[in-house]
Amino acid sequence: MNLQSPQVTIDKSAEDTFNFLSDVKNFESLMPENISKFEVLENDKFLFALKGMPEIVLKKKEATPNSKIVLGAAGGKLDFSLTADINEIEADKSEVKLSFNGEFNAMMAMMIKGPISKFIETLATNMTTAI
Predict the structure, then answer these.
(1) Which SUPFAM superfamilies match (predicted)?
(2) C or N terminus of the chain, fewer CB within 10 Å?
């Protein structure tokens, strides 16, 4: 399953945007309002839970300075990644698009497609004010 957020424009340089997203504790400010738990486990790993959903642990798997950050599932039964692609438009403007990729059976994909789409859209939208 491959889902993408709308592309958002941020009034910060690609470097500033990359640095913000590289620090996993900053993801707390991007979370939807229905978050019930957020906890930094290590400097590159955090746990979060949304009301009515199981806890999810994400770990920074890859970082390409100023252009890409990949977070992946750290344990659990589901294997997926969340990628932030960052493009510099001007010295003080950048664009970010989030991509969610995961291998799920058809039934699971049907159940989680809506909530995951809404989740990554919220993360992207919240970037415009949080960064």
Answers:
(1) Bet v1-like
(2) N
Cβ contacts of 22 within 8 Å, gap of 6 or more: 60, 63, 69
* CA-to-CA separations, 30 to 25, 35, 66, 123, in angstroms, rounded: 10, 10, 19, 5
Is 131 in a helix, a strand, or coil? coil
- Cβ contact 80:72 at 8 Å: yes
The model's pTM: 0.94
Helix (H, G, I), strand (E, B) or coil at 22: helix
Q: What string of pLDDT tens digits covers the 131 residues of the chain?
A: 999 999 999 999 999 999 999 999 999 999 999 999 999 999 999 999 988 888 899 999 999 999 999 999 997 777 899 999 999 999 999 999 999 999 999 998 999 899 999 999 999 999 999 99
Reduced 3-state DSSP string for 51-119: CCCCCEEEEEEEEECCCEEEEEECCCCCCEEEEEEEEEEECCEEEEEEEEEECCCHHHHHHHHHHHHHH
Query: What domains sit in the chain, N to C, each tagged with a CATH number?
Result: 2-130 (3.30.530.20)
